[in-house]
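Hello again, I could really use a second opinion on something today. I've been staring at a protein lately and its backbone has me curious. Please have a think about how the structure follows from the sequence. I owe you a coffee for this, so here goes:
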Amino acid sequence: MKKVLLLGDSIRMGYDSFVQEKLAGRAEVFFAEDNGRFVQYTLRTLSDWAGKGKWPSDIDAVHWNNGLWDCLHLNANNGSCADGEADGETIKPANTDQKYIFEKDPLTPPEFYKYFLKRTYRRIRQLFPRATVIFATTTPVIEEQASWAYRSNSEVDLYNSIARETLLPLGVKINELGEFAGKYCHQYHSDWVHYTPEGCAILADEVIRFLDAGGLL
């Protein structure tokens, strides 16, 4: 029986148990109980998660995502307070509530995102040397509902492009889950980022379809 490991942020946390249930009897599915958040967080905690003894080293496929936290702009509260940016510059997107002001720079700038994608990939290969590594692109958001933080779909697209350009040459397979969610899951948003159980089940089906099509089940 194949062994599949699911890594990533709260989008992954939405569909992981559905994947596990749907693949019962076909594959062993493992995942972290923790939210993988941004790519540097996933890198930092990979060894901790693997060291708990819940994941075997002979994983056949690692299905991984990061990006939503990385392209996130933190709420700066007001124009005079922008913790995390030395120059204090902020943005006020026209399509959001104008009481919200956000840091100009995303949590993980694009050049750092590329760097940490490579490092995280190398760590995955070290921990699971026989695994096929799959990266799932970031799912779209409803920008105008942003409040405590801001994300734009143009930046989601940019970070997805960076992931493709960085990881494809390394042999990583790309699951275009972001594109799929944009086409088939928009009506299943539970908030500006996440999905209802029905939406998560649809995403789980697409993850399974991708694994199956790749001969990984």
